[in-house]
Amino acid sequence: MPTPNSSNTNPYPIHPPYLRYLNRGILTLIVLEVGLAIAYLSTSLVNGNAPDFLDFNGLRTLPSLIQAFQLFLIGAIALLLLVLSRQLKHNLSWPLLLFITILCCFGGLDEVLKIHLALKQFNWKGMYLGILTAIPILCWKDLVRLWRSHRDVVLWIAIGISVFVAGGFGAEYLKSGLTTLFSGNVSETTLFTLEQTRTTIEELSELIGETITVYGIGRFTIRFIPVRHPSIIEFPNSDQSR
Q: How confident is the model over 59-85, as pLDDT tens digits?
């Protein structure tokens, strides 16, 4: 039977109240994102365009700001883990945390300012995909350590990135295919409906993918939040109270 000091015991267990707060927050965020996607698609199809604050393709709209906030949050957590690495002793290397910080902060700025729109002749999606591929290759030792000690974290982050890449990049590449396949064969209304649906799937996948990634990182981070135990109050016995 393993002792409390055995290697099988996780030195950083998740405190249940913190996990409940994290679960509720992430679930609320996903419900909000799905609701925004439904509102955007329905108003676009009915009115021909969605309100400006709901525009999934717009600049500094509500969906765009949510996505930027999540990217900045991931970058801020990575930076905090980097700065407090000696105190927390989480065994993550500084290159991994630095890569994540730079990538997410630049991604957040790009989401707010739409920097990629100025790079029309540059394959910016290929650049992002290349960086996402390079990080696990260059920092594979970190992933091995995480897999051995925090397997749930690795799985959730992998699911989040997969949803982001499959929905976001996949839907973008599907755009040219749909245009070629249906151009001249269907009405403009059908093409508009297909494009709005594709845009909704693309942006919603990116939002939910980021949210799941935040959840995975959150499961790792809350392990280092100190647990406050209630004070023990000793009541005097009847003999002493007399």
A: 788 989 999 999 999 999 999 988 888
Q: Which residues of 208-234 are buried (b: 16+ CB within 10 A; e: fewer)?
A: bbbbbbbbbbbbbbbbeeeeeeeeeee
- Name which residue leads in pLDDT, 228 or 215: 215
User: Nearest CA to 101 among 75, 81, 82?
Assistant: 75
Longest Cα separation, the chain: 97
Helix or strand run (H / E) with residue 32: helix 16-47
Q: Residue 217: which residues within 8 A CB-CB, separation 6 or more? A: 74, 77, 78, 153, 157
d(CA 23, CA 207): 17
Predicted confidence (pLDDT) at residue 242 exceeds the cutoff of 60: no
Contact 168, 205 (CB under 8 A): yes
How far is 239 from 95, CA to CA, in rounded Å? 64
Q: Give pTM, 2 decimals.
A: 0.79
Q: How confident is the model at residue 176 (pLDDT cuts 50, 70, 90)?
A: low
Vertex 142, ends 69 and 12: CA angle to 5°? Answer: 75
Residue 100 and residue 80: Cα distance in Å, rounded? 12
